[in-house]
Amino acid sequence: MKIVVYGLGLIGASVAASLKKAGHYVLGKNRSRESISYAIEHDMIDEEALSYEGADVVVLALPPRVTVRLLEEGAFPDGCIVMDICGVKSAPEKAAFSVPRRWRYVGTHPMAGKETSGIRSASDALFAGANFVMTHASQSDPAALETVRFLARDMGFGRIVECSATEHDRMIALTSQLCHVAANAYVTTPLSAGCAGFTGGSFQDMTRVAPVDERMWAELFCMNSEALCEEIVRLSRRLDEFAAAIGDRDEARICTLMREGKACYEEFFRRN
Amino acid sequence: MKIVVYGLGLIGASVAASLKKAGHYVLGKNRSRESISYAIEHDMIDEEALSYEGADVVVLALPPRVTVRLLEEGAFPDGCIVMDICGVKSAPEKAAFSVPRRWRYVGTHPMAGKETSGIRSASDALFAGANFVMTHASQSDPAALETVRFLARDMGFGRIVECSATEHDRMIALTSQLCHVAANAYVTTPLSAGCAGFTGGSFQDMTRVAPVDERMWAELFCMNSEALCEEIVRLSRRLDEFAAAIGDRDEARICTLMREGKACYEEFFRRN
């Protein structure tokens, strides 16, 4: 298939590299020439895309607001599949389906990343075994969905989950966005400057995603404001329950709270 | 040196195994015979300790409340060094120093662990490169502190941090106890049962320590109630700030909050 990947950052370049490795003809489009040269040199793309002409698939691997704007403008060839990789799915879907189109939209969310961004962190193995979420709506084209399923396998994903954009956004508020909010909130304390030597693995793991790109994440948070706020407030209230029990030195109550958490955790891993 | 390790769980058996490997003569004391047999079979101890007689060092690797009780009772040989590995340090120190003793107390906290507990998870390499905190007070014996420093190196720790019990407890509230509270609070949601397929690495890392032994942790939380509550409330209030900014879709304010977190994170890693 002829595939144009627009945006050669960590995710875009990894999409390009893994699809090229799987035998597709991959063209790259990017604002900076440097990433194009890097991608060609590192065998991530076949050549630069000068237009979308003849593309079977266009992958938009761009920041959320730019993605939404391009989907609204809708300047893609008739019949081609346009797939975005944005971390929220309702806003891009709305942009794509708000007016009738001659191209076919499929929303996706590759559940993989790194703390470092940019093409230098990209790899054709980034998605190996990871989760791939695809969203569908009544307007979705079944053949386009089927093509994207094949591409997900070609990229190396381990599991494909299909759901509505709304369900995606509700789950992702918990499984991804809240992690970034909580990790960042966690480290925001004057004590963190003095805690070298006092940390084990749990602090490192808890705070790993604290220093992500705030502009991209702020866009994502605002595009999923309602679901995310609900999760933040839930976590905050649960912490207050812990503070009350610990303040009272009420071991029985603390144990009850922790057992409730463990039960949820085990339920999660039983199904996962 | 002749060392008695009392309590052959994950930490105790790893202390025993690493000290034996370093050439010390290590005896094990444990309620269940099974762990003694396992430790002898797996070369973690030389033999069972039938008493503390002749011990240069006694390591108490027991749950917090039992540790405090044994230190209060104080039935250790004259001159011997008694070292505990409890995750809080003010309570054991107070128990040890509340009356004059003929044995010498040194509080320690090996900053290493696993999600799994028990002797079967123990290893002579558990502490390789990890942080080791030792506490001292005006009553501490300098020669005992020096001996414990050597033992920490023998166990393979990478860095030794020395401070007061109060400072330890204040830092540990942030770097360890709050992680366990936050991870547990994080997963306590009906959504966690449905989120299989929607998770990347950040959710796994964020919730890794959620299912720890609630009884031991409840004891630790209650022994450090004040410092821990302060950290829980700080995190909870910070989350509320995020919720307010995200609820208002105020990207500038979200970016400011996240940049403050990033600055703390970077300050931490600059010093660590």
CATH-derived topology of the largest domain in chain A: Rossmann fold
Rg of chain A (CA only):
21 Å
Care to count the β-strands of chain A?
8
The total domain count of chain A is 2
Q: Main beta sheet of chain A: strand number and arrangement? A: 8 strands, mixed
Number of helices of chain A: 10
Architecture per CATH nomenclature, i.e. the level-2 architecture of the largest domain in chain A: 3-Layer(aba) Sandwich
Summarize the helix and strand pattern of chain A as letters. EHEHEEHEHEEHEHHHHH
- CATH C-level label of the largest domain in chain A: Alpha Beta
Question: Structural class of chain A, please?
Answer: alpha/beta
Oligomer status:
homodimer
What is the straight-line distance between the termini of chain A? 33 Å
Strand order of the largest sheet of chain A: 3-2-1-4-5-6-7-8
Largest interface: A-B, 90 and 90 residues
Task: Name the CATH superfamily classification of the largest domain in chain A.
Answer: NAD(P)-binding Rossmann-like Domain
Q: Which spans of chain A have pLDDT < 50 for at least 5 consecutive residues?
A: none
Q: What sort of overall outline of chain A do the alpha carbons produce when their principal axes are compared? A: globular
Mean pLDDT across all amino acids of chain A? 95
The percent of residues in helical segments of chain A reads 40-55%
